[in-house]
Amino acid sequence: MELVMAPWMSPGSVTERLHLFAAAYSAADRSGAGGGLVEEGEDIEVLELPFTEALAQVREGRIDDAKTVLLLQWAALWGPFAR
Questions:
Q1: In which element (H, E) is residue 20 found?
Q2: Is residue 33 a contact partner of residue 46, using CB atoms and an 8 Å limit?
Q3: Contact 36/42 with Cβ under 8 angstroms?
Q4: DSSP helix, strand, coil percent of the chain (3-state; round to 5)
Q5: What is the pTM of this model?
Q6: SS3 assignment, position 46
Q7: CA dihedral over 30, 33, 39, 45, signed as positive or negative
């Protein structure tokens, strides 16, 4: 895993800082269907999209979570999908 950025979410008003990581993986790395640990109250849905589709969803406003948008931008500009 690589730390790609650690932005402050709202400097001056809160002390929340995100640490965003990225790592390469393949289908062979997958250990299950996802879902998280029921005993810890996790309900995680794994959703994989082609990169171009994810970018299109950002443009359309369908992906609007700031953390996800930042990581997609990183991937396009400096990460594995940089040209």
A1: strand 20-22
A2: yes
A3: yes
A4: 35, 15, 55
A5: 0.81
A6: coil
A7: positive
